[in-house]
Amino acid sequence: GGGPSGRRRRKMAALIPLGGPQLSTGSPSYETYYKQVDPACVGRIGASDAALFLKKSGLTDAVLGKIWDLADPEGKGFLDKQGFFIALRLVACAQSGHDVSLGNLNLALPPPKFHDSPSPLQISSSSDAHWAVRMEEKAKFDGIFESLLPVNGLLSGDKVKPVLMNSKLPLDILGMVWDLSDIDKDGHLDKDEFAVAMHLVYRALEKEPVPSVLPPSLVPPSKRKKTPAFPGAVPVLPASPPPKDSLRSTPSHGSVNSLNSTGSLSPKHSLKQAQAPAAWVVPITDKARYDEIFLKTDLDLDGFVSGLEVKDIFMHSGLSQKLLAHIWALADTRQMGKLNKEQFALAMFLIQQKVSKGIDPPQVLLPEMVPPSERTTSVQTLSGYLATVGPEISTLAEMRRVSTCSAFQPPVHGCTFQPPVHGSVSASGVA
Question: What pTM value is reported for the model?
Answer without folding.
Answer: 0.29
